[in-house]
Amino acid sequence: MSAEQTDLVDELLAGKHRALARVITKIENRDPGYRDLVSALHAHTGDADVIGITGSPGAGKSTLVDKMATRYREQGLTVGVIAVDPSSPFTGGAVLGDRIRMASNVGDMEVFFRSMSARGSLGGLSTATTDAVKALDAFGKDKVIIETVGAGQNEIDVVRTADTVAVLVPPESGDNVQMLKAGILEIGDVFAVNKADLKGADRTVQELTEMIEMRDDYGANLEFPGDVAGVEEYDWKPRVVETVAKDGEGVDAFLDVLEAHRDHLEATGMLEAKARTRYAEEIRTLLREDLSDLVEGEIEDHGGMAELVEAVVARETDPYAVADDVLAPLRECVDEKRS
Ligand SMILES: Nc1nc2c(ncn2[C@@H]2O[C@H](COP(=O)(O)OP(=O)(O)OP(=O)(O)O)[C@@H](O)[C@H]2O)c(=O)[nH]1
Ligand SMILES: [Mg+2]
Predict the structure, then answer these.
(1) Which atom, in ligand 1's list, is nearest to the CA of 247?
(2) May I ask the CATH architecture of the domain 44-268?
(3) pLDDT at 261
(4) Where in the chain is the domain with CATH 3.40.50.300?
(5) pLDDT category, 289, cuts 50, 70, 90?
(6) Residue 307, pLDDT above cutoff 80
(7) Do the beta carbons of residue 75 and residue 108 sit within 8 Å?
(8) CA of 101 to the centre of ligand 2 (A)
(9) Backbone φ and ψ of 217, nearest 5°
(10) pLDDT category, 210, cuts 50, 70, 90?
């Protein structure tokens, strides 16, 4: 690691918000050397409580996150917020930034706010989010909140970085069934029927409760690498609460439920199990990305994709033979190392 990078890490660990912001920018841009930074931070992580907030556009996520941050600050806790916009092609998260943006906490440096957007990074957003969470965790933020619009697989991947996931559902949104399809219902530990001041909240609470009752496979889709004591006792049943984020109503009860989930994760060893699962996924993702880069390099060395395709079109070769050819040098290296 360069001296500059070492300084940056030291400053971040010493609590300098400017260094934190710079590290996250490097992570987001995948600046050369960002990997060394994240590697250096890893040893300092593991203490933050990571909460994911998702839900349909305009559900009130930012408004709720703002109220949450205020409450946490009142409790003397430090907060980091990452607003992730998976669909936005714009840089710097300007789109999110122009909406409700931590209105009451602007200027309070103990609430660090940052938005991140897809920027055309292929599948890299959840990696970037995971890394940004690490930076906030290493910095010493007690609570790290990830806000993301719930729509597709990308968002689900993003929110899985969190230990506890809350899904916001506005009353009578007609979204419920759609969410089921998108798999969001499966990842919610807590459901907040926000905008409970609007009509139809009771019915939405009831619908959600019924949907939860129909499920009995909480956490079943999690794979556990290694045995963690007590995990079989994890039997959290998702809870449904009502909130009026814009007035702060129900926010305390909502935070209590988040805390209850956290306690249950800890007591059952599920917190550890989830972390293990995430690390396994992280390692696999990095390996896939690195391998893919190697392969792209090999494609170039073989004349580039266009040329390879022409040869296939002309029936000089076929896709299987091309794949074998392109991989041959990599295979040889591996065989040499092994023997
Ligand atoms: N009536 C009512 N309006 C609310 C409530 N909470 C938030 N809003 C309003 O809903 C609108 C959207 O709120 P946001 O907090 O920006 O929603 P969001 O989910 O972050 O939106 P995106 O980030 O764009 O997906 C704003 O006009 C809020 O003032 C609530 O409890 N009741
Ligand atoms: Mg928002």
Answers:
(1) 31
(2) 3-Layer(aba) Sandwich (3.40)
(3) 97
(4) 44-268
(5) confident
(6) yes
(7) no
(8) 7
(9) -125, 40
(10) confident
Mean pLDDT over all residues of the chain?
Answer: 85
* pLDDT, tens digit (0-9, with 9 covering 90-100), for 101-149: 444 555 566 789 988 876 544 457 788 899 999 999 999 999 999 998 8
Distance CA 246, CA 105 (A): 14
203 CA from centroid of ligand 1 (Å): 20
**Given the CA of residue 59, which atom of ligand 1 is nearest to it?**
19
CA of 263 to the centre of ligand 1 (A): 29
Helices 270-301 and 319-338: angle between axes, nearest 10 degrees: 110
d(CA 29, CA 6): 19
Both tokens of residue 243?
Answer: 């909130």
The preferred substitution site among 145, 246, 249 for testing ligand 1, maximizing ligand atoms within 8 Å of CB, is 246
* Angle formed by the axes of helices 17-29 and 34-42, nearest 10°: 130
Q: Whose CA is nearest to atom 7 of ligand 1?
A: 60
pLDDT tens string 214-244: 876 555 445 544 455 557 788 899 999 999 9
71's CB contacts (< 8 A; 6+ apart) are 251, 252, 255
What is residue 325's predicted lDDT score, i.e. its pLDDT?
96
- In this predicted model, what pLDDT tens digit does every residue of 82-110 receive, in sequence order? 998 766 544 333 333 333 444 455 556 67
Name the H helices within 83-122: 94-97
Q: Is the dihedral of CA 277, 280, 283, 284 positive or negative?
A: negative
